[in-house]
């Protein structure tokens, strides 16, 4: 007759071979629960498999979260849409389901500083991540620096190709400073993703002023043509959401004119 120790050894070996580390660790607890509940063999087997599936899903989400490199996780539940009344809440909620990603569509968030563009971009990215998509968040200036370094080291094609693994890339804060020669590299980056992967871009500038950032009217026109071909444009027309949050957290009333004048 097989001893308990031998049986446990066989289970450990099988869990290792099947790559079920969580089940290897927790099956004694699951067995104890099954005995206490007088569960039959099928119920016990089901609980073991369900436990492993759940743990693998949790591990995948943790991996995707680390890979995304969000500065700080944000959710739609945390965003107060009442402060940006013209922002279509239902549309934003639909975008957060990630359905635009298989269609290779883009999302462009445009509005004054502090109106919540980065929050919404991150929240949509978080929703996409929870749906299983590979997401990466990066500021425009950080990406420009990485593109320039890759070009200097003669590995730009390989660097551009490395971004293909992300089904959604979030480019934050386009428009705060002119890009100079970096604008051509960013154009190359966006062109490579055209109809290959989705982008979310946040910008404080309306489209007519993007030429101030890229410095080349022809390049800017070509860029906008690619970006807006399949895109959802979200306009953040309102008082500074971030400023309201800051003062609101201090328990102060926010004078309307004070908020309107905040940059």
TrEMBL record:
<dbReference type="InterPro" id="IPR003593">
    <property type="entry name" value="AAA+_ATPase"/>
</dbReference>
<dbReference type="Pfam" id="PF01695">
    <property type="entry name" value="IstB_IS21"/>
</dbReference>
<dbReference type="InterPro" id="IPR002611">
    <property type="entry name" value="IstB_ATP-bd"/>
</dbReference>
<feature type="domain" description="AAA+ ATPase">
    <location>
        <begin position="103"/>
        <end position="234"/>
    </location>
</feature>
<protein>
    <submittedName>
        <fullName>IS21-like element helper ATPase IstB</fullName>
    </submittedName>
</protein>
<keyword id="KW-0547">Nucleotide-binding</keyword>
<dbReference type="InterPro" id="IPR047661">
    <property type="entry name" value="IstB"/>
</dbReference>
<keyword id="KW-0067">ATP-binding</keyword>
<dbReference type="InterPro" id="IPR028350">
    <property type="entry name" value="DNAC/IstB-like"/>
</dbReference>
<dbReference type="InterPro" id="IPR027417">
    <property type="entry name" value="P-loop_NTPase"/>
</dbReference>
<comment type="similarity">
    <text>Belongs to the IS21/IS1162 putative ATP-binding protein family.</text>
</comment>
């Amino acid at each position: 007759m097989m001893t308990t120790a031998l049986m446990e050894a066989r289970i450990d070996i099988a869990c290792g071979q099947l790559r079920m580390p969580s089940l290897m660790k927790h099956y004694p607890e699951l067995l104890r629960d099954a005995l206490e509940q007088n569960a039959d063999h099928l119920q016990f087997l089901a609980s073991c498999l369900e436990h492993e599936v759940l743990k693998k899903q949790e591990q995948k989400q943790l991996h995707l979260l680390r890979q995304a490199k969000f500065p700080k996780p944000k959710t739609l539940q945390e965003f107060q849409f009442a402060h940006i009344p013209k922002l279509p809440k239902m549309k934003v909620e639909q975008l957060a389901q990630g359905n635009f990603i298989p269609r290779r569509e883009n999302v462009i968030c445009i509005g004054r500083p502090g109106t919540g563009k980065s929050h919404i971009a991150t929240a949509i990215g978080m929703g996409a991540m929870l749906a299983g998509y590979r997401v990466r968040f990066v500021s425009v200036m950080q990406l420009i620096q990485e593109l320039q370094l890759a070009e200097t080291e003669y590995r730009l094609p390989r660097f551009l190709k490395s971004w293909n693994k992300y089904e959604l890339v979030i480019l934050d804060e386009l428009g705060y400073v002119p890009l100079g020669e970096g604008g051509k590299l960013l154009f190359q980056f966006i062109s490579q993703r055209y109809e290959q992967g989705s982008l979310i871009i946040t910008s404080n500038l309306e489209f007519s002023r993007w030429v101030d950032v890229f410095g080349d009217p022809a390049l800017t026109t070509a860029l906008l043509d690619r970006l807006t071909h399949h895109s959802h444009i979200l306009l953040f027309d309102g008082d500074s959401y971030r400023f309201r949050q800051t003062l609101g957290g201090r328990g102060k009333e926010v004078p309307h004119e004070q908020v309107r004048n905040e940059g």
